[in-house]
Specification:
Layout (H helix, E strand, L loop, with lengths): L2 H10 L5 H38 L4 H50 L2 H6 L2 H43 L1 H48 L1 H6 L3 H53 L5 H23 L1 H18 L21 E8 L8 E8 L4 E5 L6 H8 L7 E6 L2 E2 L5 H5 L2 E4 L8 E2 H5 L8 H10 L3 H6 L7 E2 L8 H14 L4 E5 L7 H18 L2 E5 L3 H7 L2 E6 L2 E7 H7 L1 E5 L1 H5 L6 E7 L2 E6 L2 H7 L5 E2 L3 H10 L1 E2 L1
Parallel strand pairs: 3-10, 3-11, 6-9, 9-10
Antiparallel strand pairs: 1-2, 1-4, 4-5, 7-8, 11-12, 13-15, 13-16, 14-15, 14-17
Helix pairs in contact: 1-10, 2-3, 2-5, 2-9, 3-5, 5-6, 5-9, 5-10, 6-8, 6-9, 6-10, 8-9, 14-16
């Protein structure tokens, strides 16, 4: 994004405060104008004193009137300076509130892949560091620009009124000073952009290392982590040093050139005063104005670094605000008449890019009260299928219907209100345990909270904690164990009373005894309420206990699908030697695994196989056997 576009968008946030901003700018102009008149009055006082000495008569009336006027000028100037500062602080606070609100609203509309491609630390750096940089630029420099421009114009007018000939000297020196510092100003802008990017990268790295500190120590990765941090830190140091050095050198360069003009102006003014061409007070005022005329340009040049940092920060902020959002809900969303919890996946296709589809024509139906297990190896698409159902990602093809309505025709709130979801990665916020369980229903009474905790087998351990349900969890719930966090998230899902309960590796962090109790509660929950369970798990014992329908995903397709009992009854496992396997018709087998002591094969239909090969014994299979052979067995 160009600097002009960034600047225009930043000005857009100031438009709704046009009147207040105009009054602030007007106050800045009035304050500066009165301040610019002060050297002229000081020069008149000096001239009066010089005349008093020369004439031997002290002109009290003239001097006192001039001094009173000077005091009045300073008082009025400071009054308007206060009004300008107060108004600008108010405007800045409202603008920053609006900017942060826009960022917060955007965060809830972003596609999930934005979070997949940006570190949390980098996003936090945009919300905090970059917004603060914009805040500083607006609050400190915006009115300063107006003040400096007003000062330059006012001083120029006063110098022309005193001596047009001497005015030529500072007017010529100013552009020379700016040209001499132009290279530094351009370089500082580049370095400030690099500094903001590196600051975001460093924050992301620190956040990542902090959250993964146990893994870092477990793998003795401290030295490498320190080295990577040191490299980022040194890069940030070098970029910050270059930015500050180049930006900081602008003011000395401009000041040095302008000082040369001041010396020339002083020399010529003194000669003209001696010659009687110019009053002593006028020379003094002219020298003061010469100094003040250069000061605004030096100040504006010194602001280049601050504005460069603001432009870089604005670019990162608007890149976030312009990031692709979720597809908006339909203007007139459909509301299913039924509340049965029936879900139908029809020829579902999905890919992060159109040319690389991960899901390829998946068909699946979840009936009310049914317990469906989605099984497959890591990366098969189990969690992706659930994310598509919840509309965390949009379909590339096909359709998903909930209670007879396409999910794209429903509002996300209506859709997600029908689901309770428990993930492998637990998320609990800082607050009371009861508030975490009642997260989906803030006004939930304590009885329902406790009943949900009992159903999740969490009540017994919650009672032993200090404060019980009112115990405050720390950030990330680090003050309880992983298993306890998992139980609370399960209780939270049950408390939402969903039509469909989605369990994505939900019991992976629990010990076998507690896991078995949880599964019993799930079975009671579904039988009593006639709700469906969509289960994704690698733990086949869970599947065999809970599921009544199993779908095997492999490489984005449904490899095997059917009722659990039917699958276990139909498939079989053949264990034989290589020579025996060679006599078997490949059409009767799904996959073959060769080992040191023979071969194993998954038989499609053990009854049909027995008719063709009665001499070979076929063993019963487990759900794990079907998954392993489907995924890893050699195709026949």
């Amino acid at each position: 994004m160009s600097r002009r576009a960034i600047f225009q968008r930043l000005l857009g946030y100031l438009k709704e405060h046009r009147l207040s901003l105009f009054l602030c700018m007007l106050s800045a102009v009035i304050s500066t104008a009165f301040l610019v008149l002060a050297p002229f009055l000081v020069g008149r006082v000096t001239t009066a004193l010089f005349a008093s000495i020369a004439d031997g008569v002290f002109y009290w009336d003239t001097i006192l009137c001039l001094l009173a006027a000077l005091v009045a000028l300073y008082l009025i100037s400071q009054l308007f300076t206060f009004l300008q500062g107060f108004g600008m602080a108010r405007i800045t606070a409202h603008v920053m509130q609006k900017l942060r609100s826009d960022i917060d609203g955007k965060m809830h509309r972003l596609k999930l892949d934005y979070y997949d491609t940006h570190t949390h630390g980098d996003i936090l750096s945009v919300i905090t560091n970059d917004v603060d940089t914009i805040n500083n630029a607006i609050s400190q420099n915006l009115t300063s620009v107006v003040t400096q421009i007003t000062t330059a114009v006012g001083v120029l007018v006063m110098m022309l009124a005193i001596s047009p000939a001497l005015t030529v000297i500072p007017v010529v020196m100013v552009p020379l000073s700016l040209l001499s510092a132009a290279g530094m100003m351009k370089a500082s802008e580049t370095y400030y952009g690099q500094q903001q990017d590196l600051l975001g990268a460093l924050n992301g790295y620190v956040e990542e290392m902090y959250n993964g500190q146990q893994v870092v120590q477990a793998f003795n990765h401290q030295k490498q982590a320190k080295a990577e941090f040191r490299a980022l830190n040194e890069a940030l140091r070098d970029s910050a040093r270059k930015a500050e050095v180049t930006a900081g050198s602008v003011s000395p360069i401009t000041t040095l050139v302008n000082d040369m003009g001041y010396v020339v102006c002083a020399a010529i003014g003194c000669l003209w005063a001696i010659a009687g061409k110019l009053a002593v007070g006028s020379v003094q005022a002219m020298l003061e104005y010469t100094w003040r005329f250069a000061e605004p340009f030096s100040s504006l040049a010194g602001m280049v670094g601050s504005f460069g940092a603001a432009m870089a920060a604005g670019g990162r902020i608007f890149a976030l605000l312009d990031a692709e959002e979720e597809v908006p809900d339909p203007q007139s969303p459909a509301v299913p008449r039924e509340h049965s919890g029936r879900v139908v996946f029809h020829q579902v296709q999905f890919g992060y890019t159109p040319d690389r589809l991960l899901m390829k024509g998946v068909d699946l139906a979840v009936e009310p009260g049914q317990k469906v297990a989605i099984v497959g190896p890591t990366g098969a698409g189990k969690t992706t299928l659930i994310n598509l159902l919840m509309r965390f990602y949009e379909l590339s093809g096909g359709s998903i219907q909930v209670d007879g309505v396409d999910i794209r025709q429903m509002s996300r709130a209506e859709l997600r209100d029908r689901f309770g979801m428990v993930l492998q990665d637990t998320w609990l916020f800082e607050g009371a345990i009861a508030d975490n369980i009642a997260y989906g229903e803030p006004d939930m009474d304590r009885e329902k909270v406790i009943a949900s905790a009992r159903s999740a087998c969490a009540h017994s351990f919650i009672k032993t904690l200090p404060g019980g349900y009112d115990m405050v969890l720390s950030k990330g719930a680090e003050n309880i164990s992983q298993g306890e966090r998992q139980l609370i998230t399960i209780a939270r899902a049950i408390a939402s009373d969903p039509e469909i309960l989605i369990l994505d590796e939900a019991t992976s962090g629990l010990d076998p005894v507690v896991r078995d109790e949880i599964l019993d509660e799930f079975l009671a929950f579904i039988q009593d309420e006639e709700h469906a369970i969509l289960l994704s798990s690698h733990i086949t014992s869970d599947l065999e206990k809970v599921a009544d329908y199993v779908t095997y995903l492999h490489r984005g397709r449904v490899a095997v699908s059917g009722a659990k009992d039917e699958l276990l009854d139909t498939y079989g496992k053949l264990v034989c030697g290589r020579s025996e396997l060679e006599r078997v018709d490949p059409a009767l087998l799904v996959g073959v695994r060769s080992g040191q002591f023979g071969c194993e094969a998954l038989v499609k239909n053990r009854r049909a196989f027995a008719r063709f090969h009665p001499e070979l014994a076929v063993e019963p299979v487990s759900l794990e056997d079907i998954m392993v052979f489907t995924v890893k067995g050699d195709a026949r």
